[in-house]
User: What shape does this take?
Amino acid sequence: MLLWLLQFPFYHLLFHICVLETYIEIMSAQQQRIQGDVPTAVHNLLSSTSQLQDLLRQWSIGHASETQVSDLYVKIGTDFNTTLNAFMYHNIELTIKNALTVHQNSDIYTFPKELRAVLEQCLGEAASPATLERYMPQVRQILYKLLRGLQMRQDAWRTRVGASSSAIPSPPPPAPYASGGRPLPSYPAAPSYDMRR
Assistant: This one.
């Protein structure tokens, strides 16, 4: 019966409209789940910033280019925006204003600009372990500050969704950078501003 009806243009069109509406509903539901997926968003952000630290080490010994670092910064920016959107999806207040946050300087919105400024200074100098040693402490401090800012919103998110596990790991304080091959801990990262502009 369905095949017979589909021979007529009107029913054929109606069938495609129903299929399209169903597809749109499914995609909309999936998109809503993705938008509010705080653990995945934070995981991707942490992964990208860990890659940044590794890539900067490669850059310092001539095994990676400035373009690669810039491209990764853009990805970090995308992951950062996705993380903010995930928190906002659950109506989590992202601007926390009180004496404690001002004292700790934990405004995560300054993260992209701060990271970009340090990376531009670093990449503006000759690639070498000495250059990296000068700038890596600042990079790590910025990443640490971001993670602390995200953690301050974690309790609100967990309360809102009833999550029992922590989405954001507790970081150790940033240690001084040493170029002696010691691995750096993984922290997070920035928005989609291309440093080459």
